[in-house]
Amino acid sequence: MSQKNEFGITHLRHVDLAVPDYDTQRTFYKDTWGLTEVGTDSGLSYLATEGSPEQYVVRLRKAADKRLDLIAFGAESATAVDALATRLASQGIQLVSQPGKLQTAGGGYGFRFFDVDGRTIEISSDVATRQHRAIEEGEAIPVRISHAVMNSNDINKTREFYETYLGFKLTDSLWSQHMGEMMHFMRCNDWHHSLALAQGPHTSVHHVSFEMRGLDEYMRGTGRVMRAGIKKVWGPGRHKAGNNTFSYFLDPSGNTMEYTTELERLETDQWHPSVYDIADPMTQDQWGTADPMSELIAKESFNDKDRGIFVAPPV
């Protein structure tokens, strides 16, 4: 299997969010969503999944403004980190920090930069792993972070940035007769996507997805979150692109979070991207159990305009 990223990017590590309602969010992610708080620092909460060696998958920061702080991707070595930083800087990409020892939980070696839309991206290697375990049958908590989807008002420009500068590959796209290309699924390893780009009115978080152990655990988790009174945006259903299940909910800050399972893994490098028409009901939901995708549902995932564009988070 040679789905290797040409610049040594290995996987999605974590998504960091700044939230005004910090305490409410901490409670939601721990008690309702099923993450484990592995540490806190002044106004910071680090949340891990029990099934993954990743130090943490979500970081919450107490802040006046809601924003995406950063998206972090792993790299195979410190050498790869240095090479990528040098390459980006030489091509005029604005670095937020030079490669060095990370001060966040788990340490490691990395740097940060702004992507074409102004999101802060971190690339890191040598982050300490955490004790993790196999999730048991019937245990309806996330195994790992699956993917992050970001809104962009020009998804082809954003796609080109990730292909050119970070070596992501296009797996599949969603398309609409009236709107053109609506979503690009991008990969940095053999998972169908670790990152996806959604056409939206502004730069913001579309959703963050968490992989469950299996169908039963996915449904039990979906039910638990529904019973907790959390607003369900869409699902349960099964997408065509990626063949994964979906249940989308709004967290207390209005960020969309997804439970998924059985996301496709690509068997071969000879992958030919498909373009799926969103007008086909099977594209959105192969099962037919979710409500049809509507403008109302779509608007929920536009989210608020991100207030962190081209502003690096303080930590």
Automatic annotation (TrEMBL):
- Chain ranges of the VOC domain: 11-126, 144-262
What PROSITE patterns would the database entry show?
Answer: VOC
Q: Which Pfam family, just one, is annotated for this protein?
A: Glyoxalase
Which stretches are transmembrane?
none
Recorded hits in InterPro entries, A to Z, give: Fosfomycin_Res_Enzymes, Glyas_Bleomycin-R_OHBP_Dase, Glyas_Fos-R_dOase_dom, VOC_core
As one GO molecular function, the record gives:
dioxygenase activity
- Keyword tags: Dioxygenase, Oxidoreductase
Q: What is this protein called?
A: Catechol-2,3-dioxygenase
Q: Which organism is it from?
A: Paractinoplanes atraurantiacus
